[in-house]
Amino acid sequence: MTRFRSALASLTIAMLGLTVVPQHAWAAPPKPVPSAAQQEQQVTLASACAPTVKSATTNARLTSLFTNYGNDNSRLDDWTGADGTYSLRLPSGKELWIFSDTFLGQVNPGGSRPPVVEEGGTTVFLNNSFAVERGGKLSTIYGGTPQKPAAVMPPRDKDHWFWAGDATLAGGIVEVTYQEYERYGPGAWDWRWHRNTVARFAPGRLDRPISVHDLPSGHGVSWASATLKDGGYTYIYGVEDLGSPKYMHVARVKGQSLLGSWEYLKADGTWSRNEADSARIMSGVANEFSVSRVGSGYVLITHDTTEVLSRNIVAYASCSPFGPFTGKQHIYATPETNGNIFTYNAHAHPEVAGNGLVVSYNVNSFVNTDHYRDVSIYRPRFLDVTFQ
């Protein structure tokens, strides 16, 4: 099985709400969840500052930007499609777009692409990449050479790979979270999440990390879903992925860098230095989501994982960056979801200009040859979400 087929298979299983990770890899003990009475009280408290969703419309500028760039054959070593789609404003004012699985290469007449190199074609497939936007123009950043492109966060060997999470700036240095996955046997499903890391990049040299550091990884939480700077802290949001359900966890570190001392939100609302105390704050989140400041409150945006293969993007609100997040609101039903095609991992981009809060979501197919037939499938879509 090629890296492309393996990556697609792993995503397919995650979207179906299944888990192929051996149980010992998920070491987190059961965490308490709020009682019905506590949840009712939380809704009452959150209503005081909860933004209400007003509308969600297509962000034509960003959707067209990536469509046109992906179709442009003026270079044959650049981006034609990807998922993940995190973003970070660089000190220069440029926008850094952070991707996981990525196609590089040409687009054929009619909107198809050649198969990946591992299947005898010319399309390069990488497990992570960057694109930089300035003045409405994009450029692709990868490691390696134009003759042999490589991931910007390279794997340690052929049995491991990294998928990107959210990113933050710390003293002018880009810190990108990554999840490392590993193969442990010859079978198609013999792979599992292994650990969390953060890679530090110089804004002017993004094709290779300055350094890579381990992040907390001892209790089955992928600390890569979202980050938020607020009140002197950087909050880190993670997912304990049991297939179904998926639980949100919250950590924080003083200052800007993820290399500081972490604290974890406990079930009683206090903080602990012990990752084992990290509580299941809520279920229903996707592996990628976002928490953003909107007005006097905070909005959590996610694909709705209370439904299998949901087309629905929803929002929850809170008066604090660590919840409780309540009052589920429907934002948008993704029109692409149909047959083999599914959508997933919606999250916000508060630093990106739009008519409201910019939200992206990913589009994919359960049939890998669909990605050869139609390049438009495997590209992000963008929305403008307004609140009242």
CATH 2nd-level architecture: 5 Propeller
Terminal CA distance: 49 Å
Q: What are the low-pLDDT stretches, counting only 5+ consecutive residues below 50? A: 16-30
Morphology: globular
Average pLDDT, rounded to a whole number, is 91
Tell me the structural class: mainly beta
Number of strands: 27
- Helical content, roughly? 10-25%
Which CATH class applies here? Answer: Mainly Beta
Cα radius of gyration in angstroms: 20 Å
> In what range is the share of β-strand residues?
35-45%
Biggest sheet, open or closed, and with what strands and sense?
6 strands, antiparallel
Instruction: From the 3D structure, determine the CATH topology.
Output: Tachylectin-2, Chain A
Helix tally equals 4
Number of domains: 1
Please outline what is shown here.
The chain is mainly β.
Task: Fill in the keyword field for this structure.
4-stranded antiparallel β-sheet, mainly beta, 4 helices, 6-stranded antiparallel β-sheet, Tachylectin-2, Chain A, 388 residues, single chain
Could you characterize what this model shows?
The protein has 388 residues and is mostly beta strands. The protein has a single domain (3-37, 61-298), classed as Tachylectin-2, Chain A, CATH 2.115.10. It has helices at residues 3-15, 36-46, 60-71, 370-373; strands spanning 53-58, 79-82, 86-89, 95-99, 102-104, 124-126, 129-134, 137-141, 143-144, 149-150, 160-170, 173-183, 191-201, 211-214, 222-230, 233-241, 246-254, 262-265, 271-272, 282-283, 290-294, 297-303, 312-318, 326-333, 341-349, 357-365, 381-387. A hairpin with a 7-residue loop joins strand 23 and strand 24.
